Amino acid sequence: MIRENQNYLNRTQVLVDMAIVWISFIIAYWVRFSVSTAGPAMSMRDFLWPITFLVPFLSVLYHIFDLYNPKRTKNISTEITQIIKANIIGDSFLVVGLFIFKMLDYSRVLLALFFVFNIIFTCTMKIIIKKVLRQYHSAGYHQKNCVVIGANETANAFIDKTIYNKHWGYNIFGIVSTEIEKNKLNFSKYKTLGSIDNLEKILEENPIDMIFIALETNEEKHIANILDICENSGIRTSIIPYYYRYIPAKPYMDDLDGLPVIDIRHVPLDNIFKSMLKRAFDICFALVAILITSPLLIFSAIMVKATSEGPIIFKQERVGLNRKTFYMYKFRSMKVQNSAEEKVQWTTKNDPRKTKWGTFMRKTSIDELPQFFNVLKGDMTVVGPRPERPYFVEKLREDIPRYMIKHQVRPGITGWAQVNGFRGDTSIEERIAHDLYYIENWSFFFDIKTILLTFVSGFINKNAY
Fold it and tell me: Which of 106, 107, 181, 125 lies closest to 151 in space, CA to CA?
């Protein structure tokens, strides 16, 4: 019954999305030719037939980008990103088609308006549907009866998250335990359906929609038998691995001739196409940034020289990609100090080594501008984890778990940790947690988002000393 309802909902969403395409085109046409004084250069029919081909093509793209996946746990921001990607591809093919069929009079403004309206309306509808369904599930409707096989820490963690995320619509129907687990944890508030010895009977006699197997390492001997029974029941079955504590939420699976291998740290930038895209963007952005800020660069150089003795540019050794060191450039904001002190001292709030102009530069991040030349050299990227000095890297790698993972990508001028306020004298643990989230979830749009947030909150920061 639940699967039939889900199929009906998916068919409805497809129809709604396709209707939105037509509505978006009609509104775009009206804005272009009714609001504007310029009349159409083509007939309405000529404008319509390319959209007729685009509608099913977009439907296929939406399916390819997994927009009709019934997973209740999918994040809305992920869906919005997929909608934008699908529309970029769809509209690109539309433009190419117009060129091939020599429809050169097709209004470019109309295409731009249609592109914007279709994304806005589709995303808005997705958000509304998502919100309605979440409230519907949270209220106890259309829930899936779930049986958890296991009464241990793994099962407990899953149940806690299910209770917290009521919008998933998972109802814990009962627990099936093994003899090993008896009285290990208190699951008295849930109905105990029995042990795995009578699992087959339990699945036959109860209205169960989903099975979650949550066994610990000392219970592996049961798993083959449990899987056979679950698969024969025809009920959808999922396994929550006991080693979930050691792998990311979205592990990378590789196939070695039929042998599945889990990469405990999936790095999207290992993909050569994504890496080349990021590098091309870095070069273009750095060149534009240097050009735009050139008056400020010149003025800052003059002020550094005029307010204190020493070089204009301060070069400091940092650890970068693959743990290799490089020299990072900054405008000198402190008095000249010997190399031994410089390598091992943090900058403090009222550090007497700072110059007056240097204090202003550090507060406004002007001292970081020369790092765009590091980007052009390939030592750094625009967005990425901030690099640290070798002395502190060696110190922190012993104290902070997973600290060294940040060196699997190029260090950045700005980063996800920095725009979230973890800069200067703030929690190293939180900073690393944000860096790892960025590394594992990188996308081109994530970089754009981080750059925009840097303009909003990243330049002036109370924690920047």
Answer: 181
Q: What are phi and psi of 443, to 5 degrees?
A: -155, 160
Task: Considering the chain, tell me which residue range(s) the CATH 3.40.50.720 domain(s) occupy.
Answer: 144-246
Q: Give 21-58 pLDDT, tens digit per residue.
A: 999 999 998 888 877 656 666 677 778 888 888 988 99
**What string of DSSP letters covers 435-459?**
HHHHHHT--HHHHHHHHHHIIIIIS
Task: Determine the Cα–Cα distance for residues 252 and 18; give it in Å rounded to an integer.
Answer: 33
Amino acid at 35: V
Q: What is the CATH number of domain 144-246?
A: 3.40.50.720
What SS3 state is found at 53?
helix
Check if the beta carbon of residue 305 is closer than 8 Å to that of residue 312. Answer: yes
pLDDT digits (tens, 9 = 90+) for 405-431: 899 999 999 999 989 888 766 788 899
Task: Give the span between the Cα atoms of 313 and 367, in whole angstroms.
Answer: 9
The pTM of the whole model exceeds 0.70: no
How many C-beta neighbours within 10 Å does residue 452 have? 12
Q: Count the residues in the chain.
A: 465
